[in-house]
Amino acid sequence: MKHISFSSIALCFLFFFLVTPTPNNSISTLDASTIDITNRTCKKCAEEYSKTFSYDFCISSLQAIPVSHVTNIHGLAIIGMELALENATNTISTIKYLLSYGTLDRFALVALQDCLELYADALVTIVDGVAAFLTEHYSVANVKVSAVMEASTTCEEGFSDKTGVVSPLTEENYNLFQLSDIALCIIHMLSLAVCK
């Protein structure tokens, strides 16, 4: 997958959060050596959460991060949001390149400028979503991550307003949408657990 990577510095920074068990959730306290939490979570999300949720994308994205194999469900949500942040950051660089050196028509350039604003806002929103999630304000995290998903959709739809214009950001928008969907599904699961 293009534009999805995770720096070793970020992994070190998040390691504490990712491997710390949380006693309030039975899913998160399962032994990672006996149950593949990534596979189980992706499968549950694909079967029960959303028709747009991609099991294959979920597995390939999360399993590419080594710490996902030793984390809990909270950690998987953070990984999803961190990957979304990485995707948004890389997409901003791509947009700036296309605006500077691309040979697109005026309509596409205006759409790209709109996408740049959407992605810049998405960066701040993702960070706010992570902060809300870490403090267990799941409803706030849900709103923030949903807004990021909407940004990717709005960006993609901006190119469809003119016949014959193809979005140069289809892959990036899809990736951000799916990464946000991973986090949203887990936030939803944790919200249900809190309500019980």
Protein architecture, described:
The protein is an all-alpha fold and 196 residues long. It has a domain at 73-195: Up-down Bundle (Butyryl-CoA Dehydrogenase, subunit A, domain 3). It contains 7 helices and no strands. It has helices at 8-19, 37-48, 55-63, 73-101, 106-134, 138-158, 170-195. Helix 1 runs antiparallel to helix 4, helix 4 (73-101) runs antiparallel to helix 5 (106-134) and helix 5 (106-134) packs antiparallel against helix 6 (138-158). It is elongated and about 50 Å long. The chain starts with 7 loop residues before the first helix and ends with a helix. InterPro entries: Invertase/methylesterase_inhib (IPR035513), Pectinesterase_inhib_dom (IPR006501), Pla_a_1-like (IPR034088). Residues 33-186 form the Pectinesterase inhibitor domain. One of its GO terms (cellular component) is plant-type cell wall.
Secondary structure layout:
Blueprint: H1 8-19, H2 37-48, H3 55-63, H4 73-101, H5 106-134, H6 138-158, H7 170-195
Helix pairs in contact: 1-4, 2-3, 4-5, 4-7, 5-6, 6-7
Mean pLDDT: 83
Radius of gyration: 17 Å
CATH superfamily of the domain at 73-195: Invertase/pectin methylesterase inhibitor family protein
Which CATH C-level class of the domain at 73-195 is it? Mainly Alpha
Return the CATH architecture of the domain at 73-195. Answer: Up-down Bundle
Q: Give the fraction of residues assigned to helices.
A: over 70%
Q: Which residue ranges are poorly predicted, with pLDDT under 50 across at least 5 consecutive positions? A: 1-35
- Given helix and strand content, the structural type is mainly alpha
Q: Distance N terminus to C terminus?
A: 37 Å
Order of helices and strands: HHHHHHH
DSSP, total strands = 0
Which fold name is given in CATH as the topology of the domain at 73-195? Butyryl-CoA Dehydrogenase, subunit A, domain 3
- How would the global form be characterised? elongated
| Number of H/I helices | 7
Relative strand content: under 5%
Major beta sheet summary: none
